[in-house]
Amino acid sequence: MISRISGLFAAIAFAATLAVSPLTATAQAADAASAAPAATETAAPAADAAPAAAPADAAHAKPADNPYGLKAMIDHGDAVSKGVLALLLIMSIGSWYILIVRLWDTHKLAGEAKEVRATFFKKASIAEGVKSLKEAGAFRYIAETAVEASEHHEGALTENIDRSSWVTMNVDRAVGEVNSRVQSGLGFLATVGSTSPFIGLFGTVWGILQALTAIGVAGQASIDKVAGPVGEALIMTAIGLGVAVPAVLGYNWLVNRNKQVMGQVRAFAADLHGVLMGNRALAKR
């Protein structure tokens, strides 16, 4: 539970960082653009710079707000633009949360697998081996399921299945449940990775449409009237890509990690099945 909460906070931090980065970049560009006229005025003839106190006051003046950044888009955008931005933010937080939590889960499962290989099959009995496993862990769940299936094989219908097949079926179900828990959330990552660029592109198209409509109504098509709204709209595409790339990379990374970890889980289940069947054969002698 603690790891999931910490993963949620980390996901919010990552998403906030990705959301603020376009604003920072555009603010730096605006500062650089405002610094150019100041340098030109400094290089002007001394006759034009009459009062000496004016440059000092201008140096300490508060910089003007960037009219082409994310903040301007939020302030002047309509409900559709803000809704697209909020949707991308939710998708980013969700993808980072799933990525962090699932990486932590596979890390714990790999640690359990390493410990099981070193200690479980060296115990004097299966009961001692099961007790040595971590409580509420995946390997403990598989081992208890296998032992219970081996010891309880009664019933009018289940007696038609031989004991080896019965244990195999129960172990496979337990392994499948572990695999489902490990892979939960990967579908969301795949959805985010495939749809967020198009959602961002939709926000861009909508923003450009609204900007061009406003410019057409006003009858002013100068570059300063076009650059601001169009630049704000293009930020949506950048945000959409910023949401999609981590989701796609995280999905591929988790798929590879899950294959490795689940291979160790299935190997343990097969070895445990062999041990249980060997004990049953010895008990019949």
Write up this protein.
- Helix content is 82%, strand content 0%.
- Helix 8 packs antiparallel against helix 9 (223-284).
- The chain starts with a helix and ends with a helix.
- It has one domain.
- The radius of gyration is 31 Å and the shape is rod-shaped.
- By secondary structure, it is mostly helical.
- The chain has helices at 2-42, 53-59, 70-76, 79-119, 126-132, 138-151, 163-183, 186-218, 223-284.
- It contains nine helices and no strands.
- The longest helix has 62 residues, at 223-284.
Topology:
Elements: H1 2-42, H2 53-59, H3 70-76, H4 79-119, H5 126-132, H6 138-151, H7 163-183, H8 186-218, H9 223-284
Helix pairs in contact: 1-4, 1-9, 4-8, 4-9, 6-7, 6-9, 7-9, 8-9
Quickly describe the structure.
The chain is mostly helical and 285 residues long. The chain has one domain. The chain is 82% helix and 0% strand.
Name its key features:
285 residues, mainly alpha, 82% helix
Overall radius of gyration: 31 Å
Q: Quick check: average pLDDT?
A: 76
Structural class: mainly alpha
N to C succession of SSEs: HHHHHHHHH
Principal-axes geometry comes out as rod-shaped
- Proportion of helical residues: over 70%
β-strand amount: under 5%
